[in-house]
Toprim domain-containing protein
Amino acid sequence: MAKPEIATERTRLSIPFDDRQRAIRAAGKLADGSNALDYVKEEKVWYAQPGANLSRLKEWIFDPNKVIEEPPLDIQAIEDEFTAWLEERGAIIKDPIEFDGQKHYVDTVDGKAGSRKGVYAAFLDGRPAGWYRDYKNGGEIQKWVSTGAAPNPEQMAMLRADAAARREQRAAAQADKFDQTANRLMEEYNRLPDATGDLAYLKNKQVIAANGLKADERGNVVIPLFNADGEFRTLERIWSDGSKHLEKDGQAWGSFFVVGGQLKDGDNLLYAEGYATAASISEAINQPVIMTVNAGNMVEVAGRLKDTFPNSTHYFLADNDIYKDENVGLEKATEAAELTAGHVLVPAFSNPKEGLTDYNDLHVSEGLEQVRLQVEGAINQMNRVDTMPTDNPNITDVNHSSTDSAAVADPEKAAPVASAPAAAEPEETAPVASAPAADEPVEAARWPAPLQLLNRRKPRRWPAPLQLPNRRKLCRCPAPLQLLNRNTPHQQIETAMMKRVIAPVILRRMPL
C-alpha cells in the first residue's frame, strides 16, 4: 500500500460547492480531533490543514495549470473588463483587481493623490460582478456584471483558489519590496545629522526638533516612521515650504513616529496627523504624541496600537478641516475613536478663520499655554464623564474646561469630541424652544455659558442654557438633534430647525 501523502503546511484546494460535503468526509479529522479542512469565508476558498491526508484530496488540490472543460473562462479577461469599466468612471487602477468581495479603495481622477475617494468590490459568485462608488462625485453605487459566460461550479472553485494564490504572491512581493526600501532608507537615515530648531520648517511652525529627527543636505526635515513592532519602515521629508513627501515604495501605511517620549501601556495615547501639530501638543503637556502622517493613516495606526496597549485610553487630536468641503481630519479621527472606544479633541480659536485648523495653528496664533489649557482641560473633563455614576445615559457636563463635539454619521458608534472655549460670536441667530424656568439657581462653575451650535459654517445660538444628553447618540448629531434643559434633565427639547441639522456639527461654548 502506498504511503499516504501528509500535508506539512496549509494546502489550497479547489472544491466546487456541490462537492463540499464529499470533500469534508474524505478529509476526515486530524490526530487531535480537529477538522482536516478549513474554509476561509473572506476568500471563499478551502484549505487542507497541516497533518491532513492529501492522498484523499487529490481531485481537489489546486493546480493552476489544470485544464477545465468548456466553456473556457479567463480570469485575466474578466479583470481587464472590470478595470476598463472602473477607469471609464474615473477610478485610477494601479494594482490587479481583487475578486474577494471586500472593499478596495482607490484614487480618482478628480481627487487628490492619496485621498482614495473611490471604492470598489468585485465578486466571483455566479457571473462575475462588482460595484463602484466615487465619494468625490456624489457617492452613488454603480453596478457591473461581466459580459462573459458564467463559470460552472468547478471553474468557480478554480477561480477563487487562483485569486487567493495571486493575492498571496502579490502580498509576498510587496512585503519584499517594503523590506528592501526600509533597509536602503535606514542606511541613508543613519548617515544624516540630527535636526536642530534652526531648520526653516521648524522655525516657521515654532516647534522644536524632537529626538530622532534628522536633516538632509537641502535643509529638509527627515522623520523616521516605524510600525507597531518598533521596526523602521520608511521616511517622511518635510521641505522648508511645508510640503511633505513620503518615499516611493516605503511602507507608510500603518507606520508612525512618536514625538516626545515612549509609549507605555496604561498611559494615555495621544494622536495627531502632522509633525508640527504633534510637537506643539507634546511640548505643551509634556507627554508623547503619536504622529500618524495623515488622517487616513490615523485609523490604521490606532487599530494596530489598541492591541499593543490594551489598557490605554486613546485621544485623537484632530485637524478640524471645517472650512473645506469635506472635514476629513475630523471624520477620520472620529472613525479612529470609534475603533478604539477613544475620544476626539479639536482646538477652539478665540478668532476663528480659514487656515486655523489644528493645535499647531493654536500654538502659533494664541500661544503654547492655550494648547496646554485646552488639551489638559478636555482630557480631564472626559475622564470625569467616563467615571460619572448614573442610571441614565451618560451626560457630558459643560464646565470651565468646556467641550466641542463633532462627528459625521452613525450616532450609536460616535465618539465624543472635546475642546476648550471658543470666543467667536455667531454670525446669525435662530429661535429655538426655550427651556422651562428653573426653580433653583444654576451653578456658575458648572454651567458658565450657553452653547453655540455650528452647522458647518452657519452658527446658531441657543437662548436657553442647555445640557448634552447621551454623548454617543449626540456627537454625530443625526436629525432630530435632541437637547435637554440643564435644570430639568429629563425634559427633551426639539424644534423644527433642529431636525434639519446636517453633519458635521460642532457644539461650542460662547461667552455670556
About this structure: Residues 11-60 form one domain. Residues 153-191 form the longest helix (39 residues).
